[in-house]
């Protein structure tokens, strides 16, 4: 599934701002316990205190086995229509099932929050006898008319009404913010500027919120869905549209059929006033469903889809297996995107770009499209048998982002993905370290984290580099073909690689998939008698994490001659001796940038400069710049950074521009001129924006002419950077230019304006905040609402009433948790000058059901 929501927010707001900072180092875990001898005169032995438990070690959780398969769900036929006013789905479900092994006299279905009208046996397509059933609003237990064996399939029809809005609140996760399965958007048409839509979201067990099923990932079914809607609306579901019929009452019934089996959580429907842009690949229909106003830019957003299909089909040796591939953008989606079989659903914010916005998106935005597409193989064609094995879906989809960047944009782009993903995981690892394959967890939604995505993708990258490209993709082909249209677990992936390579890979799968944590390596070296003594220490807490076996490449430079040495680290403290003709100019551990690890690698300034000048890849250049930036005042170092401003790869230029922040060296005038040149003339929008941000770091210096020119830039990223710079140093001459931007719909610029007015606005901007808090997208509201509170601090208390009421309403009722957080923070800004608000904040905290928010609120108090 799914691209995490907060990942999308970062994509939309920062749009590839400054290159990822050096990964924040997790707090060092407590050292392994040491023995302490009792004093000789002591009469008794004093036992050592227990070793402190690391803050990232999760509480003990119950074992979560795969669901027991009692029945095989073979086929589902649905007939659905909608009551828009009540936000109900009126449905009929015909299920074809068969006992899996043992004879069965009852059938238990997942069915959440329904009114069940009747259950009947169906024979030869005709109504049979009514069946007795019991229902507790979660499980529908049906008493069959007799005992059925595993050689007998039978059909049951359930007539029901699904009422998703009456389900209990509080479900969801970081990746999926709600779990009610079926969503009506603007059902009465009262929200200006927003279309009426119905859409579904099935993962993890949301499908059973709108049709009765066996809602487990180890089930597979074919399906047919008849959807009755008003004539003006379009529908989409899995598979192909096999018929459409206009009805006498002004409605239309579309029938969608998927002939190949998939798990129930991958079933979807979407209804709305979409424009449909068509494409094709090898004769199969490819479609993009978008709001009509974005129909002319949809091809630019989705247009690489056929090329992606061709690339993956050839790379995997398995042709895209499904009947068609559609992508639909919907409003208020509760995840970033979802890989429903043949019909991916995507958050509206990912496609609502004007022609002016498109150049700001960069190739990283394709990560979402390629991620969900790769799921059509890893997740849909072959599906995890349990949520414990979720990385078999998500790690592969995550890794596809690197594969696509590598194929389409080159090695540096792939290295940029590798760096970003590693940093994502390491940041999460400060407070959470779990095995990738987790048979113990508190809630299945906990599996949707940076471990299952980012860490898993990096583990696959190490596996690929260890076995080699040919073996890696042959093994993936074996895994896919041996498990097609079936559920799988980690052992099957390991066996596919072992059968391909002939090597027992238990060591690799055990340490990377089955154990928590990552290596924390201290690298030092010395030279003597024609050898480099390379010392590798594994500093991680090995009471809770393994001592890793690490195949790695070390490169030594003798003058300008590089030599690669392949070593295997197997001990907690190990020294390797590498032959070299003379004292090395540089010794680089993990020179290919493959390891999922934290490296503390000692290098001198001269070595870092040498590394930059002889770098083989983006990661080596980035690492050198990061190591040098604290010494940017040195003439030689600043020369390296200034040279890097002209590098071929945009991210190197970007990190070089960021590295010159607050430069205080002797070349101050030249450095500033270089940055001004980059801010004005650099071809890449992201780098121009970073140069402006860097210029704003020079206190008491006037770059208003650069900022004023940037306010007219074609790139919203650059305009937003200029607004942020002027927020710190406002000028009278740019005030009207900024006010002229107030009606923007661009998310990053709107966020910058909120920051500017929060710091510099007057009572005149109070109405702007009130108005934009009604129409701003959710990812903007988080920061806009906090800045609204900052602005109101400068207003007389008597004039704050409407703003406080708006913030309180959003903090209590907005369906998206991070918007509630932004509103809470806005109120908190005011509480120091309005003590009465402390009672309101306490009440909001007390009544909040989302554990993510309650834990954050405890830190804000």
Distinctive features:
single chain, about 850 residues, alpha+beta, Neutral Protease, domain 2, Immunoglobulin-like, five-stranded mixed β-sheet, 29 strands, globular
Kindly describe this structure.
With 861 residues, the chain is α+β, with helices and mostly antiparallel strands. Among the domains are: 207 residues, Neutral Protease, domain 2; 203 residues, Immunoglobulin-like (Sandwich); 101 residues. The strands form seven sheets. It has an eight-stranded mixed beta sheet with strand order 5-4-8-2-1-11-14-13, with no helix packed on it. Helix 25 runs antiparallel to helix 26. GO terms for molecular function: alanyl aminopeptidase activity; metalloaminopeptidase activity; peptide binding; zinc ion binding. Its EC number is 3.4.11.2.
Q: Which CATH-level-2 architecture of the domain at 1-27 and 331-510?
A: Orthogonal Bundle
The name of the CATH superfamily of the domain at 1-27 and 331-510 reads Neutral Protease Domain 2
CATH topology (fold) name of the domain at 1-27 and 331-510: Neutral Protease, domain 2
CATH class of the domain at 1-27 and 331-510: Mainly Alpha
The largest sheet is:
8 strands, mixed
Domain Peptidase M1 membrane alanine aminopeptidase: 304-512
Keywords: Aminopeptidase, Hydrolase, Metal-binding, Metalloprotease, Protease, Signal, Zinc
Domain Aminopeptidase N-like N-terminal: 77-266
Family: Belongs to the peptidase M1 family.
Short summary:
With 861 residues, the chain is an alpha+beta fold. Helices cover 36% and strands 23% of the residues. A hairpin with a 2-residue loop joins strand 4 (114-123) and strand 5.
């Amino acid at each position: 599934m799914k691209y995490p929501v907060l990942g999308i927010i970062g994509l939309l707001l920062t749009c590839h701002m400054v290159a990822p900072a050096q990964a924040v180092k997790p707090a060092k875990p407590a050292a392994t316990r040491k023995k302490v001898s009792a004093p000789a005169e002591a009469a008794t032995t004093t036992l050592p205190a227990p070793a402190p438990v690391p803050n990232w070690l999760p509480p003990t959780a119950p074992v979560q086995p795969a669901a027991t398969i009692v029945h095989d769900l073979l086929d589902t036929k649905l007939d659905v229509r909608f009551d828009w006013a009540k936000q109900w789905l009126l449905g009929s479900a015909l299920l074809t099932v068969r006992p899996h092994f043992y004879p069965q006299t009852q059938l238990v279905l997942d069915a959440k929050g329904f009114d069940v009208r009747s259950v009947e046996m169906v024979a030869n397509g005709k109504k049979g006898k009514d069946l007795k059933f019991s229902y507790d609003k979660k499980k529908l237990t049906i008493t069959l008319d007799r005992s059925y064996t595993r050689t007998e399939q039978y059909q049951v029809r359930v007539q029901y009404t699904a009422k998703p809005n009456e389900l209990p609140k509080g479900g969801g996760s970081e990746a999926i913010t709600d779990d009610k399965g079926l969503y009506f958007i603007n059902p009465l048409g009262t929200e200006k500027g927003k279309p009426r839509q119905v859409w579904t979201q099935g993962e993890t067990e949301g499908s059973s919120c709108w049709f009765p099923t066996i809602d487990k990932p180890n089930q597979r079914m074919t399906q047919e869905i008849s959807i009755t809607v008003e004539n003006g609306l379009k529908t989409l579901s899995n598979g192909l549209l096999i018929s459409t019929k206009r009805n006498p009452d002004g409605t239309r019934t579309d029938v969608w059929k998927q002939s190949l089996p998939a798990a129930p959580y991958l079933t979807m429907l979407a209804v709305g006033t979409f424009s449909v842009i068509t494409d094709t690949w090898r004769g199969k229909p490819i479609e993009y469903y978008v709001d009509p106003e974005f129909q002319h830019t949809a091809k630019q957003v989705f247009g690489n889809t056929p090329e992606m299909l061709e690339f993956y089909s050839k790379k995997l040796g398995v042709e895209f297996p499904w009947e068609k591939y559609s992508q639909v953008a919907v409003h208020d989606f509760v995840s970033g995107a979802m890989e429903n079989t043949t019909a991916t659903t995507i958050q509206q914010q990912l496609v609502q770009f004007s022609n002016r916005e498109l150049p700001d998106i960069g190739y990283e935005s394709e990560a979402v499209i390629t991620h969900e597409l790769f799921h059509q193989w890893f997740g849909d064609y072959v599906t995890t048998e349990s949520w414990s094995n979720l990385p078999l879906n998500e790690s592969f989809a995550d890794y596809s982002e690197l594969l696509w960047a590598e194929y389409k944009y080159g090695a540096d782009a792939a290295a940029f993905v590798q760096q970003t993903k590693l940093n994502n995981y390491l940041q999460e690892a400060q407070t959470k370290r779990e095995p990738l394959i987790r048979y113990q967890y508190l809630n299945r939604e906990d599996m949707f984290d940076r471990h299952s995505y980012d860490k898993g993708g990096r583990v696959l990258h190490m596996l690929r580099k260890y076995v080699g490209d040919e073996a890696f993709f042959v093994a993936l082909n074996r895994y896919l073909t041996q498990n097609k249209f079936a559920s799988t677990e980690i052992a099957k992936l390991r066996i596919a690689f072992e059968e391909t390579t002939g090597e027992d890979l238990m060591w690799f799968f055990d340490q990377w998939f089955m154990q928590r944590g990552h290596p924390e390596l201290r690298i030092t070296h010395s030279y003597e008698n024609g050898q480099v003594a390379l010392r590798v220490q594994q500093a991680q807490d090995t009471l809770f994490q393994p001592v890793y076996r690490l195949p790695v490449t070390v490169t030594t430079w003798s003058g300008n001659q590089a030599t690669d040495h392949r070593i295997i680290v197997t001990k907690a403290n190990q020294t390797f001796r590498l032959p070299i003709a003379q004292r090395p100019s540089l010794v680089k551990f993990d020179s290919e940038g493959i390891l999922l690890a934290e490296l503390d690698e000692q290098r001198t300034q001269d070595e870092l400069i040498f590394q930059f000048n002889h770098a083989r890849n983006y990661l080596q250049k980035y690492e050198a710049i990061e190591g040098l930036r604290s010494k940017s005042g040195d003439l030689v170092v600043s020369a390296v950074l200034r040279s890097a401003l002209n590098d071929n790869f945009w991210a190197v230029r970007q990190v070089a521009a960021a590295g010159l922040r607050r430069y205080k060296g002797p070349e101050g005038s030249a450095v500033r001129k270089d940055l001004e040149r980059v801010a004005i003339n650099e071809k890449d929008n992201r780098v121009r924006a970073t140069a402006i941000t860097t210029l704003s770091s020079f206190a008491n210096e006037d770059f208003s002419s650069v900022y004023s020119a940037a306010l007219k830039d074609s790139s919203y990223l650059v305009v937003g950077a200029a607004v942020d710079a002027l927020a710190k140093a406002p000028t009278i001459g740019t005030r009207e230019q900024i006010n002229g931007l107030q009606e923007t719909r661009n998310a990053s610029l709107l966020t910058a304006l909120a920051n500017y007015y929060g710091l510099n606005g007057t009572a005149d901007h109070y109405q702007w905040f009130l108005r934009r808090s009604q129409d701003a997208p959710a990812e903007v509201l988080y920061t806009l609402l906090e800045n609204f509170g900052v602005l109101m601090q400068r207003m007389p208390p008597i004039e704050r009433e409407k703003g406080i009421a708006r913030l309180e309403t959003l903090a209590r009722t907005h369906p998206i948790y991070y918007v509630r957080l932004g509103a809470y923070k806005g109120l908190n800004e005011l509480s120091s000058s309005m003590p009465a608000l402390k009672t309101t904040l306490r009440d909001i905290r007390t009544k909040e059901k989302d554990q993510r928010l309650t834990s954050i609120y405890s830190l804000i108090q």
